[in-house]
Design a protein that fits this description.
The complex is a heterodimer of chains A (267) and B (269). Chain A has one domain: MetI-like fold. Helix content of chain A is 75%, strand content 0%. Chain A contains 11 helices and no strands. Chain A is globular and about 70 Å long. Chain B has 2 domains: 189 residues, Rossmann fold; 70 residues, no CATH class. Classes of the chains: A mainly alpha (267), B alpha/beta (269). Chain B: Keywords: ATP-binding, Nucleotide-binding, Phosphate transport, Transport.
Chain lengths: 267, 269
């Protein structure tokens, strides 16, 4: 117990320590508030604001979409189709498989569809890809949450004459704190993904203004900068990683606060 | 605890009831995952009285109760044959509407299970899903039902706080009030006092005795003393069969069937 605890916190601090040690000297207000200027990738002025904004748009939109699509799917699988049936078992297996498919596969498939439809690499393409990538996360997490709902609760609403949909609404209320975790997991996967956005979202030095234009994302910005031989640019890569980590940290804390407020009525 | 496999069950005796039956169970068979759980049950449940279903654990008491409001249907691989008539209407008919049937029956489960909402919303939930939107009416229903179960004075100042903050006995009364708020005709209790302390148990028992003037009540219990205290009629179920049905004193004091005799004397548990 103690060894595993120490090794987990240890590796977390190691990661944060390394990116802080390497990135902190390069972090500046200019870096997080400006778009790249000419020569940014050879160590000159500008920042990664385009990528911060791009990542937030991409992850935010995909998470919202994945939640809106994923929750009804999970409810359907749990409440509307007969439990233990072939359809239920095979659908859940399918989502398990989808859950495990690496994001580059999603990227490749989305890319080929985009080529076929004549859509170029854009924020929209990225949002669709990442939504597809995160739906299985939402579905499987919510599904597991719904399995923890006591049968008695379902029986209570049903015996009051509630329809399946009315029962589902109470169940959603019951698992609400857990839904935040599902959203958090989806957001974390969405904001950290490189392979899925590489082919579909492209990259741009401009701030993302339109959904049909390419947009920069933080993981890709880190990737590009890290592959540079120039120490200045490499340092900025670690600074970008630090920014990404901070964003995730803020989201995690916010989610926890929201979830704990929701626990008020939990049993 | 004694060996009882050698005892043969006899068919249920037909008993002429003094009052009209509210529910009639006819040739009811229930199979769960291929296992025959309830075997050919025939029973008339009389109006405005308390009928207790007794029997050893695993005999099918709870299954029988849940068959009465069609809660069994939702479980995996359940097959029900035969019919259950409520006011002469078969609830297992093809065109029977499940939500409508369940609305007629309030279920009081083994442990109180408040909905994840406030005390007020717990009671108002039923009326709300059945279309009541008027806040005044809802407030009236909540007050009436909480008074019915003697909870009003205890919670009137904290109707907006979570129902989970109540003691377990209060929660069970809240659940009873919640069931009554949808204006059922029948109350089904599934060992409703097994999680409660003696005082709360007594409160619930007295409430049920009060309520039988307006409702038909069916209770599942494994406590013989409770069955004796509250019920007018008793059904003894053994191995999925309805072994004996009759007035409380007849079944408990002068049981006709040898298995009932053994159970009542405590040889089978």
């Amino acid at each position: 117990m103690q060894i595993s605890g120490i090794s987990i916190t240890g590796s977390l601090f190691l990661i944060i320590g390394i990116i802080m040690y390497k990135g902190l000297p390069y972090i500046s207000w200019e870096m997080i508030s400006q778009s790249p200027k000419g020569g940014f990738y050879i160590g000159k002025g500008g920042g990664i604001f385009n990528a911060i904004l791009g990542s937030l748009y991409l992850a935010g939109l995909s998470t919202v979409l994945a939640t809106l699509i994923g929750i009804p799917i999970a409810l359907y699988l749990n409440m509307y189709i007969k439990q233990g049936s072939f359809l239920e078992k095979s659908s859940k297996l399918l989502f398990d498989v989808l859950f495990g498919i690496p994001s580059i596969v999603y990227g490749a498939i989305a890319f080929s569809i985009m080529v076929w439809l004549g859509i170029r690499a854009s924020l929209l393409g990225g949002v669709i890809t990442i939504t597809l990538l995160t739906i299985p996360i939402v579905v499987r997490t919510i599904d597991e949450l719904l399995l923890t709902v006591p049968v008695d609760l379902k029986n209570v609403t049903k015996s009051l004459g509630a329809t399946t949909w009315e029962t589902a609404k109470v169940l959603i209320k019951y698992i609400k704190p857990g839904i935040f975790t599902a959203i958090l997991l989806a957001f974390g996967r969405a904001i950290g993904d490189v392979a899925g956005v590489l082919l579909t979202t492209g990259f741009s030095d401009n701030l993302p203004k339109y959904i049909d234009e390419p947009a920069a994302t933080l993981p890709l910005a880190i990737f590009f900068q890290l592959s540079s031989p120039i120490p200045e640019v490499q340092g900025r890569a670690y600074a970008s990683a630090l920014v990404l980590t901070l964003i995730i940290l803020i989201i995690v804390i916010c989610t926890h606060i929201l979830a704990s407020k929701q626990k008020k009525h939990k049993i | 605890m004694h060996a009882h496999s050698s005892i043969e069950t006899k068919e249920t005796q037909n008993i002429i009831l003094p009052s009209t039956p509210h529910m009639q169970i006819k040739d009811l068979n229930v199979y769960i995952e291929g296992t025959h759980i309830l075997k050919n049950i025939n029973l008339d449940i009389p109006n405005n009285s308390i009928t207790s279903i007794i029997g050893p654990s695993g005999c099918g008491k709870t299954t029988l109760l849940k068959t009465l409001n069609r809660l069994m249907d939702d479980s995996k691989e359940v097959k029900v044959t035969g019919s259950v008539l409520v006011n002469g209407e078969d609830i297992y008919a093809k065109d029977a509407e499940v939500t409508h049937i369940r609305k007629k029956m309030g279920l009081l489960s083994q442990r109180p299970f408040p909905l994840p909402m406030s005390i007020f919303d717990n009671i108002a939930y039923g009326p709300k899903i059945h279309g009541e939107r008027n806040k005044k009416v809802l407030e009236q229903i909540v007050e009436t039902q909480l008074r019915n179960v003697g909870l009003w004075e205890e919670v009137k100042d904290r109707l907006d706080s979570s129902a989970t903050g109540l003691s377990i006995g209060q929660q069970q009364r809240l659940c009873l009030a919640r069931g009554l708020a949808v204006q059922p005709e029948i109350i089904l209790g599934d060992e409703s006092t097994s999680a409660l302390d003696p005082i709360s148990t007594q409160t619930i028992e007295n409430l049920l005795i009060d309520l039988k003037k307006d409702y038909t009540i069916v209770l599942v219990t494994h406590i013989l003393r409770q069955a004796r205290r509250v019920s007018d009629y008793i059904l003894f179920v053994y191995n999925g069969k309805a072994v004996e049905f009759g007035k409380t004193e007849d079944v408990l004091i002068n049981p006709k069937n040898p298995i009932t005799q053994q159970y009542v004397k405590g040889f089978i548990s």
